[in-house]
Structure formats: structure tokens, C-alpha cells
Predict the structure.
Amino acid sequence: MDFPENLRYTKTHEWIAVEGAKARVGVTEYAQKEISDVVFVELPKQGQAVQQAKTAAVVESVKAAFDIYAPVSGKITNANKTLESNPGLINQSPYVAGWIFELELSSPAELNTLMTAAQYHEAIHQASKH
Amino acid sequence: MTMTLETEPRKLPLHEEHLQKGARMGDFGGWLVPLFYTSIVEEHTAVRTKAGIFDISHMGEFLVDGPEALNYLEKNLPRRITPVKFGQAIYMPLINDQGGMVDDIIVYRMAEQKFLIIVNAGNIGKDFTWFKARMTQGVTLTDLSDEMGLLALQGPLSQTILLECFGAFYKDLRRFHYKDFEGGVIARTGYTGEDGYEIMIPKHKLKQVWDVLFRVGAKHGLLPVGFGARDTLRLEAAMPLYGHELNDEITPLEADLEWAVDLTKNEFPGCAILKEKKKTGILKKRVGFEMTGRGIPRQGFEIQKAGKTIGTVTSGSFIPTTCKNIGMAYVTATEAKTGNAIDVMVRGKPVKAVLVSLPFYKGKG
């Protein structure tokens, strides 16, 4: 499975790409496989404030709805509207075309609580042993 | 995203075969079952256009026999059993003394005084107790659930595949009829709204049958199908599911299953209550709806009309065939009209939907 080195990861399977005070968020390759066919996405609104580890978006498969948590706190600056008509992009391209929202970080120090690609890879490996 | 971890559920006899085919396993009523192999969408489509095979060996089987078997069932089941011929099967709910549904079952007549009953896996214990509590002399009740396995072959090409596997002997099998097969039966029944068969055989023969079906079926596009697509298929065909549309408090009248109970009978449990209810009228009714706004309905979501609660969603999903978001629900009987515009409360927000007639999909099944 592919976990790009330049991203940071959460225990709840979101990735974040940080560029200065801004960041882009999506779900990992592992998450899209676990969710399977994504058929619906509920996006956050521009300007909406989100809190670290709190629900910011919802991704639904045929069977169930999954909350997508904000990896860090901030204010939503953009959401990937294409997902509304083509939610399957999350499965096809979780790190590029399937990004979910962008935000402006309010507490950049929170980034220190996130995992590197290697740490995330190890966390999944440990979890799958149970 | 949060995911739940499974706790020690029971394994199906073909557990290893499912893993070999790449199944994502998950918990279903205490059983570890294949949720999907490749994708729910792909598997749903295979059953609607070609064929799919399901391992439903978790289901329960009871044998009722003895010189008084027919009388016993006639007295306790809500449909007439006497007219059911050997080689025929019949669907019905099992009813409690209050008129609620204990389960829904299929009764196969094997001989004059011998019947096989298929029950839902999650209800095996409860149903067995129900049958046992009503036992009379001259009747034997045996739980065969641990000995029998069940496969379902469903889809427009299922007949082609079945005949190629097991011969022309099964050619003219009519809907809800069955023939003997390898110490069990092949019945023309199913839970998908599509043509198909259910193959019930002793557990140790499952693998052989599973392998033959794939060997022959592969060139016809046969796919293994998990419980995810089983649910979307039955929902699309508007077939009720125990724990969703059916439970011990809901009567068959409310569930729109009056066709599966015979109110001219006088003896079965709850019979008098159902007759009375039929006279006075029901307060809520099972309906189907289609979302017109953006959102997927799920079990337990509230249904409102002009800000007032009128019902609850019992099943809901995105449906691959039509790409629509649909559901079944119970709503106040006076609101249960096709075309009625309603709001489904999705995560606290009203999303528009409209009541439609059932089923959502009508195949040849």
C-alpha cells in the first residue's frame, strides 16, 4: 500500500499535506480500501471552523457512513466539489483527485501529534495483527 | 474515520474458500461472513445481469416430522400447509400471541408428515423455543442447523449454470418448488428479486458444489457475492429483513405481508388479534421511498412531514443498478401514499424524499 512520505497521518486514517499555514486533507489508501465503493460525500462549508479529531466531512459506502475527522484545527478554505458528482475518485485516487477539503491551520503545533508515513504504516501493521 | 473491530464470531464451513477469493469478512448476527469480495457494486450488478453465488450457511434449518407433524404446523403457522405438495415450499412469517412477527420462514414439504423449515440465523434459538413450546404428541422437532449448509445461486444465468452443473433433471423446476439433491434439495427460491436457486446440502458436501459451480460458472461471469450486495439486492426487490422491517412488535398487516398470512384460518397464534386489527385498521405501514435531495437514508433515521415526525427508516442504501438512494420505512398509515413528499432526517438535517410504490426493482424472480 502506498503512503506518500510528504504527508502526515492520523490514527483515524486521514492524511494531511501541509504548505505553510494551509493544508489539504483526504483519506488514506488503507481507508479507501476498508470503506470500499464510496458512493456519497458530504463536504464541509467554506469558512466553517473545524477542530482537531472532530468530524469535518462524511464519506459513505454502499453499506455505511464514515466520519472524516479534521487532522488539525482550522478554518475550511475549500472543498472538493467534484466528489459530489464523482465520489468514486476517493477510491481511484485517494491522494490526488480524491482530496476532500483544504483548511487554514489555527494551531500549527497540532501537526506534531500526527504520524509520519513510516509510523502510520507501522500502526496499520500492528492493528491488522489483532 | 473510525472502524469497529470484530469479536470472535462463528466461521462458515467455507471460510477458507471465501478468504481465497479475497473476501473482506465481517460480523453478521454473530457469524463471520463475506461482506464483499471485490466490490458491492460489482457483485450487485453480476446478480442483476449474469449470476452470483452466496454462502448463506449461517441460516438455520429445522426438521418437523412424526404422525402429527401436519396437524401441528397447521395449528401453529399462519398459512394453510395441507395444500402444499411434496416438492413445494411456502414463505410466511412466524407469529407470536400478540400478532407480532417472531421471524419469517420458508417451509418445505418433504413428505406427508415431514417438513423442513428454514429460519434466520439470528433467530435460531428463539424460533426453536417457539416451536418447542407448542409441541404436541406425535411430533419430533430437530435442529439441523449445524449439519446443513446453504448456497444461493442467483441471477438471469443461474438456470444455465445449474443445468450445466447438475443436469436436465432440474430443468423444469418452478418458482418455490424443489427437487432432491445430494442428501438435500435444490429449490427455485432466493432473496434477490432475480431468478435463482438455493442449494441446501450437508456441510461436508459444500466445497464440492461450490467448486463445480465456479468451474462451470466462470465462463458465464459467475461471481461470489457477499452480504453487502445481498442486502442491496433484497432492498431493491423490497424484501423485508428481520431486525429491519420485521420484528416481534410489528404485525404482518403493517409489514404489508397480509398475502403471506391466511386470515380465514382460525388456529394460529395471534390470529384473533390480526383479524381484529384488520377490522379496526393499522396505524403504521411499510412503505418505500426515494431520496430526491442529497443523502443516503440509513436504519433508524427519522421521517418528517412539515416538521412533524411521521415515521422511521428501517433500511436504506445507495442502489447500484439505478444509482439512486432508496429506503424502506414505517410511516403513519394516513401518510402512506405513493407520491407523498417527505423529509428524511440525515444527521439532523431534513433531506427531501418521495414515497414510491414497491418493489423498486422487478426482475424475473
Observations:
- The longest helix of chain B spans residues 206-217.
- The first strand of chain B starts at residue 10 and ends at 11.
- The radius of gyration of chain B is 21 Å.
- The interface with chain A takes residues 1-3, 5, 24, 35-36, 39-41, 228, 231-232, 294-296, 298, 317-318, 320, 325, 347 of chain B (CB under 8 Å).
